[in-house]
Amino acid sequence: MELSGTDTGNWRLRQTEDGIQVDDSILWLDARFTGGLSFLSSAHGLSGRTDAKVITTEETLKLLAINNIKLNALVRPYNQPISIGQLRLELLPSGAALGGSSLYVETRAGSLLYAPQLQAHKTGITRTMQLQPADTLILGANTPFPEQNHPSRKKEKERLLQAVQAYVERGEYPVIFCEPYAIAQEISKLLSEAGIPLAVHKSIYRIHKIYEMYGSELGSYNLLHRRLREPHVMIVPMQPTSRKIGQTPLPEGPIFTIEESINEETPVDLVRPIVERFVIGSTCDARDFKSVIQAVHPREVYFTGPYAKQYAAELKSSKYSVHALHPSHLPALF
Questions:
Q1: Rounded CA gap, 66 and 62, in Å?
Q2: Confidence of residue 318 (pLDDT cuts 50, 70, 90)
Q3: How far apart are CA 98 and CA 157, in angstroms?
């Protein structure tokens, strides 16, 4: 079943191109331009200005400030409920990135957990995921539903470390492309703890410093620049690029990429071929979602995001109703 602006059990949820509106309230979820109050789940979710007043974490504001994004924000720490009108709101750690959060909402009519970016596995660099039993659960479907289970995250990290060590022993220093807000920090910690000389792109370096400001121990690393005398393994942001990374020439070395999904490769326009790909997602995969749903024990589950329809079809159950949310004028993928 696909929903856009209909009555969904105890909640009236309306998916728009600008986030989800909780009807009959001032609350929106990950919206940028609403005149009401919008919950901002992470720094991943905002790439430009916003006119909304947002409720989010202090860490998320610090990360956004790196790109000169300033918000009219109601800052809340985790696990400290606040009441706004008839709504009782509480931010919970999502486990996916520094400052990343899910939103638990209670009214007299029932409870809702909005969790668009969860990481069920401990990363060692941020707060672990917290869940709360709720009548209604909203999950983010941001990558295609995999035809097979993703490889074990732990084993993929071990494989990455072994591959890097093997190349370094031969005098070759890989260039690793990855997601900059969460995976880059996790990989930095992994490699630096193994004693591998490491340099990170300036955009990742700034993010690292915010993580360390809030107590994350990322180990030893250098800023990637032309004056580095000794060879280093390099971590650079996953983004369409070519011969240069920003204004820095693409360093020599085998190219590694770290992917979010087993069946969706991030396009990177490089002058050299990619030697190794690793699947180390920053958020839950389909297998993790099953455990999340079991822990929350909802009566109804909604998927939002580009692959909402696909996840709703694959994870339908007789124990709870499952739906896809998308804007009424736009079809969901698949």
A1: 7
A2: confident
A3: 20
> Does residue 115 contact residue 130 with C-beta atoms inside 8 Å?
no
Task: Report helix, strand or coil for 220.
Answer: coil
* Residues 241/143, Cβ–Cβ less than 8 Å: no
**Contact of 98 with 125, CB cutoff 8 Å:** yes
Q: What are phi and psi of 69, to 5 degrees?
A: -95, 115
| Average pLDDT over every residue of 101-106 | 97
Alpha-carbon distance values, 229 to 225, 232, 266 (Å): 10, 9, 31
Hey, CA dihedral for 36, 37, 43, 49, is it positive or negative? positive
* Pairwise CA distance, residues 25 & 261, whole Å: 36
Task: Give the CA distances from residue 83 to residues 89, 93, 107, 121, in Å, rounded to whole numbers and listed in that order.
Answer: 6, 19, 10, 31
Unique residue bearing structure tokens 């602006």: 5
Structure tokens at 317: 């159950």
Query: What gap in Å lies between CA 259 and CA 183, rounded to an integer?
Result: 10
The predicted model gives 309-328 an average pLDDT of 87
93 and 57 Cβ atoms separated by less than 8 Å = no
SS3 of 161, please?
helix
* 3-state secondary structure labels for all residues of 100-157: CEEEEEEECCEEEEEECCCCCCCCCCCCCCCCCCCCEEEEECCCCCCCCCCCCHHHHH
| Terminal-residue alpha carbon distance, the chain | 13
- Mean pLDDT on 146-158: 87
Q: Residue for token digits 């071990």?
A: 158
Residue type, 82: I
Question: pTM (2 decimals)?
Answer: 0.90
